[in-house]
Amino acid sequence: MSSLVLELAAVLGTIRRPGDFFASGTAELLAPMMEVVGVGPIALPLLPVQAEQLIAVAERAPYGRGEETLVDPAVRRTWQIDAGRVHIGGRHWPRTLERIVSSAAEGLGVDGPVEAELYKLLIYAEGDFFVRHRDTEKAPSMFATLVIVLPSVPASTGGELIVRHKGREVRLDLRSEEPSEVRYAAFYADCVHELTPVTQGHRLTLVYNLTRPGPVPLPEPPDYNRETARTAILLKDWAEAAGELEDDILDEDSLVDDRPEKLIYPLEHAYTPAELGFGALKGADAAVAGVLAAAARRADFALHLALVSIKESGIAEYTGDGGSYRSRWSEPELEALEVNDRRAVLTEWRRPNGGTASLADIPFGDDELLPPDAFDGLEPDEEHFHEATGNEGASFERTYRRAALVLWPNAHFLAVLNQAGLSVTLPYLEDLTRRWEDADGVQSSPLWEQGHELAGHIIGNWAERQGGHDDPPGPATRLLTALTRFADTESIAAFLDRLAEDGGFAKGDTGAMVEAAGLLAPEQAATLIERIIRAKASSSLEACAALLARAATWPLSGRTSLAGAAEALLAALPGDPTQMESQHPWWNRPRPPSAGLVADVVIALGGVDESLAMRAVDHMLAWSKSYDQDGVLIPALVNLVGTRSAKSLPPMSLPAVEQLRAAALDHLRARIAEPLEAPKDWRRNSQLPCSCPDCRDLAQFLDDPAQKTWTLKAAEARRGHVEAVIRQAGCDLDVATDRTGRPYTLVCTKNQASYERRVRQRQRDLETVARLEA
Asked: What's the pTM value of the predicted model, to 2 decimals?
């Protein structure tokens, strides 16, 4: 963990007091009983007629200048009624006022009892305002002013309250458009504030002095300017090296300076997804969020609020002397022993402005926590144990949830996004590509630079993000397609180089790979393809053969430039199947050669060097058990002959194809020449893999030229055994079970299945010979 990050954790750890120099909000209003001397009861929401009645009994509000109290409509224009002439009651009003005062005190960061003393009732008409000023202390132990705007019809507009404190400014909209709600704002008494002109309607405002009873020091606005400034400096210093892999030992006692992509500051209080938001943070959480928000703006950082979700599972063990034994009345006692699987992600993203952020679930590591030991001793929110059953031992599952503030440099957003994985980054890259093409399609544009940067992050992590080697196009195709559209040759070369090192690709990706390589210099493209084939041919032979087959037909360079790749592919061809079995365990054994592999090898090597294609065909014909004529070579040859004239293929290596064709025709003609005659009697092949009594009787039946049907009345096990032998030997028999009586009877009836199969095979052979001869 970087020393800068450790210092940042220490700075934030000193911020304990919540609050700000202002607070605002809304509260539900349950119609209070309100009377004004000289007017009588006041109905809410306030109507224009009663607003005029109040103005008629009010006086112009003065303002203070030094020790003087002046009335000047150019400085302050509004109407006021002294608190002594205003009476507010009703069963619900005291609770409403108490909630407003409590919320305002919390927002101002004030602990302990706070009292509200009504000071004035103000009536603002259209055009009324109050220029910037600072309140004087109107009562002993007063520390702040609270204004409550009552509803009116029509709702007033304009009249924003602007509050300033130590270089900061906030604009509060106090319009009360909902008749059943009031809006309120509170601010410390030493704050400079003003009210912009009311542009429409009337506004009725209650002004309270907020005081602290008893001999206690008066609260002051929280001031974290020093902490904010230091935090901003640390963030800037950290951002300069974020993402760099450094092993810089600062001194013999310091830690290695490897900075993560983002920082995560866990909060103290618990928050559900429904209540998660910057405006709902409590206590010191709110104070730290305020400091980080201000510092993030100065340091050009992104700040979000998110939920930390950690899921762990693993092995549990029984506790106590009894081990796994327990009586039927006792509950098992288990405890977690070892964590086998752990997933830690950030979800439910929120922005400082109150909105949600469209970010996917992003994983994180312990090195990104601030401070590093933030989760030490963390208690799980949920924990479930499962007793041992059968071959499965005891296990556990547990979940941790915490809210946290998350920071990263705005310039490194794409590096953070990359942590979400290919399911997020590839669509984002494709969207950048579309937007770049729709804009100007110029490589110097910011969209191109973003795409290039994101591609670099994806390529850098490819080894741990790639899938298997299935035939369909995979993530590699999507990445290369975007890079080809961007014409990002640097990233294309880097990605192909990465595939040669430790990445993976599918057979279906080879088209995109060759098309992308076509944007490179011919020799560079050929070198990269050779590197990939040399590195991957032993583990991904079919994909490498398809890659070279496409490359050999693509105008990358002269044919001989791919000679090295062709030699590597030829050397990787499987031969003796018994040797392959001895070299690879059964669970990691390469799949047998396919017709597609043979066709790709002939196309690839024939497109590079005809002699290499001949050597490949010689090799295949020499190992007939690996390259079966009917299952592999003939289907490959039919495919080659059928596509020889395709424009995408090069001139075929005719000697290699002719050698395959000759061998195939010899094989087919030899089989066609075999006698083909329907059986003249009921004698059938009687060679069976078993010589038990039942199977001896079956063999005798098969060898009998006159007997068509044979039955075996026996238990299920004997009948099942005989059926299995019939299937294994491929006997020309129809098998059925007669379920009359006990035990059941197996009924075997001779057929002409072998002859019919040979008839069908003869027809296919004739068609194939005609096709190959044509």
From this structure: 0.69
